[in-house]
Amino acid sequence: MRGASLVKPLLFAASLGPLAWLSLGAWQGSLGANPIETITRATGVWTLRFMLVTLAVTPARWLTGLNEVVRLRRMLGLFAFFYGSLHLLTYLWLDQFFDWAAIAKDVVKRPFITAGFSAYVLLVPLAITSTAGMIRRLGGRRWRRLHRLAYVTAALGVVHYWWLVKLDTRPPRNYGILLAALLLIRVWAAFKRGRAAPGRRPA
Amino acid sequence: MLIKPAPDIRSSEITDETLYLRRREFMKTAAVPAFAALAGLAPTPAFAQAALPNVRKGVVTTDEAWTPWEDVTTYNNFYEFGMDKGDPARHSKAFRTKPWTVKIDGLVNKPGDYHLEDLLAPHALEERVYRLRCVEAWSMVIPWVGFPLKDLIKRVEPQGGAKFVEFATLHDPRQMPGQRLDVLDWPYVEGLRLDEAMHPLAILAAGLYGKVLPNQNGAPLRLVVPWKYGFKSIKSIVRIRFTAKQPVSSWQASAPQEYGFYSNVNPDVDHPRWSQARERRIGEFFKRKTLMFNGYGDQVAGLYAGMDLKKFY
Q1: Between A33, A97, A102, which is nearest B282 by CB?
Q2: Measured between CA atoms, how close is A178 to chain B, in angstroms?
Q3: B21 pLDDT band (50/70/90 cuts)?
Q4: CB-CB: which of A32, A164, A168 is closest to B86?
Q5: Count of domains in chain A?
Q6: Where do the structural domains in chain B lie, given as residue ranges?
Q7: Does A125 fall in a domain?
Q8: What integer pLDDT is reported at residue A167 of this predicted model?
Q9: Within a domain: A203
Q10: Percentage of chain B surpassing pLDDT 70?
Q11: Nearest alpha carbon to residue B214 among B97, B100, B85
Q12: What distance in Å separates the CA atoms of residue A64 and residue B254, rounded to the nearest whole number?
């Protein structure tokens, strides 16, 4: 496909957009009255968005038949990890000022922080094993099994958001519905595969 | 119930209807010389709000730096105009605060529908610089303009049986788009124990920074109770009712396990989902420790003598 080689660098640049927007805003002092809150929110929401976009790649491939899109999946997943890392760093540094006792207490005591922290911890092995070398070392089957953690971490991300909001649960609910749709497509696809080729199913 | 007759208004005070309908045009014309006088000065949003006359300096409770006007008027929790903190400033521009009537009813000798002008007229406006601590763990220092709530309460003469004061915000989904969402049971309701309401620090505010209260800050009349979390300081008040029974506030009704009736600022009693030990003062980088009763303990702790504040949160 002509132009496909351009898609990836363009998407890479676009994925840096939220960071560029935040950096420019911080530089110009235009992030509002509570810039740290703005940064925390934006990095958190973009983590969730990149997780969902990453999880949308495979269904998009099924629906469009464009196999090339899979080449974008690792990059998008790593951007989820990147924004997740910025989000965590914002919390550790700008919110808690590396007060480890307070952080430990938060992680144990506040369910929304427990969920968010767990989501990040589960993202770490996915990022580490994202290289071609690691895929080879683990073997495709084990690698795929490990990377099903992406479903868990995205769900934890939605829960983290849901438990944090004071009143208006519509935004986390919308992300939850999207995630549920992306997971249901997979269940449906697995069901169809099973019916199409029952003989190939392992006993 | 006794309805107070309409006050005497001289015909000279009534704006001619044709002029009223052309008010925007009039404002534009009137603004030209005003801006010409400020030649060279870039108009800031502060100029958009009319100055309040005859404001005297009131009780000084803090010499901390005032939170900039820009932040006080663009970072607001006022769900009637939307859930985002920028929504109130964006969606309240056309909010009509004239005419405005406040219904005073319940266990009171002088109930009635009071026109705002009549409600304010007997009271001298004074500046009160207070810390404001939001339940979301951020805070500001705001120079309010208002008068002690107790002065109004004395004027309307609560009866012996009155133990609580209940306030309600305007309910008008056409003007307040946030009320089209059922996130809270509208109208917004708040309440105080009568002795809390009679405390000299509790004020009704009609302005800030020496100017008429901006719509996003609760125009035309709001409560300010500086030792309680910000949501107790109800905005755009249309009803004040005196009751024997403790009112149920909107937040209590919405999440009783998270919001109590008292909602005094208390660093030792956490919100179930986050800590209240520290706060971010808007404009500051580091968080600061939250003070008991938002630093007004010397004045108000006596109201709660003998009460278990962990239970009565």
Answers
A1: A33
A2: 22
A3: low
A4: A32
A5: 1
A6: 49-304
A7: yes
A8: 86
A9: no
A10: 85
A11: B97
A12: 45
